[in-house]
Amino acid sequence: MDVTSLLIGAVAAGVPASFIVASMLTKRSTSTAQVERKRILDEASQESERLRQEARTEAKSWMQDQREDLQKEVRETRKDLKDEERRISKREDELERRMDLLKGKERKVEKGEAHLVQRETRVSRMEEDTQRLQEDAKETLQNIAGMSREQAEQTLLTRLEQDLEHESDALVARMVDRTNEKVEERARDILATTIQRLASSYCQEATSTSIELPNDEMKGRVIGREGRNIRAFEKTTGVDVIVDDTPGVINLACFDPIRREMAARALTQLIADGRIHPSRIEEVVAETKREMNELIQKTGRQVGLDLDIPRLHPKLITLLGRLRFRSSYGQNVLDHSVECANLAGMIAGEMGLNVQLAKRCALFHDIGKAVDHQFEGGHPEIGASLLRRYDEAPEVCNAAASHHNDVPQETIYAVITQAADSISGSRPGARGESLERYIQRLEKLESLVTSFAGVKNAQAIQAGREVRVFVNAQRVTDKRAIRLCHDIAKQIESELTYPGEIKVTLIRETRVTEYAR
Fold it and tell me: Is the four-CA dihedral 67, 71, 72, 73 of positive or negative sign?
């Protein structure tokens, strides 16, 4: 039934049209609202389902992320726990090691306490023996008739002195053995390592200077008319020119090695040039003197650079350069000083000391030899005075002054310097010595040893590096032999001058001879 039919029926029935229309519109609106409501509910349901699915998906994703984060945190926690376990294990090992060390120290302390107890026991026993000996001596003296008090005291003192001497000899022997065990091995390692690290060759230097001439005619040209050339040369250089009958040779003599070297160079240049007259001599000598001064300065600076020794005084640089032309026992003093510096640096490095200071001490230990012909006194004293004048450290000054035991050694660097000097001077081929001086040195060594009481004979062997001492077995006991050998070595150190060291071997033996007839 359509709307028109309803309106017609409603009018026929007398119902107002507006009421009918309103009713119809109300029903239609209600139906439409229901449809819309259903549609909205369906959409809401779908949206709710979609949101539920999205929420479920997001929840699953969040839970997955949380699970991964938790697993990662668990792994990190486990790793931290493992690291902590390793640290704890390492600490436990360290504690166990320390416990072992403590136990070892406790054992050493216990041994030391036991040793002290034993020593206390021995001391107590010795005191008891001494007391008993005194009592016995008193009783013996009381039983001796007619002995005065002074005689009794003298007898007692003699016996006590003999007993104390015996005990002191035994104590010295024990101390020497104990010291040698600890010191010799360490010193041998340091010196052996140092010597092995240094390898250098030696060349003996002659102290006399000879100039070879191309022919005998040149000798006359050097002398000049009425000797004017040779007089001009000697006056300009300060060197004596010795012209003898030796063919083709002119000798130069001077106490100053610098002047002698300068004169040799100038004369060699004059001979090579051929023009020899007073004005030319003065010109060549002046030029040679400038060259020598430049060479001396260059040599001194190069030594400081090679040894890495900074802040050298200009005067000390000059003195180092002058040592290049100085020799001692045929050994070049500058080469010897540089070698001593390297040796001292190696020894100081092995001992954990200041290497640069040790090098400085050894380099300047013979600096006095550069001017020892100009001043009175030995080169150690002259060198120490120069070093103090140029503001060197007290260790350097003492090392220069004490390397020949002229003054006491105040620092370990002085001892290292003396050791390096001995090593450099005593190596094979380092120094030369005349036969006469060699024999005199051996005779002096033997006479000094035989001056001790109880020594029958002494023989210097190995070129004076060792002396064998034969003693009277009736006058020198085994205990006394140790002290006597030590006294002989100390006397040799204080009275003799020698390169390196001298080994003292004391021999005590008892010989019994009988003949069967």
Answer: positive
Residues 390 and 410 in one domain: yes
- At 463, which CATH number? 3.30.300.20
Return left, alpha or beta for 391; rule: phi > 0 is left, psi -120 to 50 is alpha, else beta.
left
Same domain for 288 and 228: yes
pTM value > 0.70: no
Reading phi first (left if > 0) and then psi (alpha if -120 to 50, else beta), residue 14 is in left
Enclosing domain of residue 348: 314-426
- Which residues, 6 or more positions from 408, have their beta carbon under 8 angstroms from its beta carbon? 402
Q: pLDDT digit string (tens) for 291-342?
A: 888 888 888 888 888 888 888 888 888 888 888 888 776 678 888 888 888 8
Most confident of 151-155, 259-263, 325-329: 259-263
Q: Which residues of 273-311 are buried (b: 16+ CB within 10 A; e: fewer)?
A: eeebeeebbeebbeebbeebeeebeebbbebbeebebee
* Domain identity same for 327 and 213: no
Tell me: pLDDT of 1 over 50: no
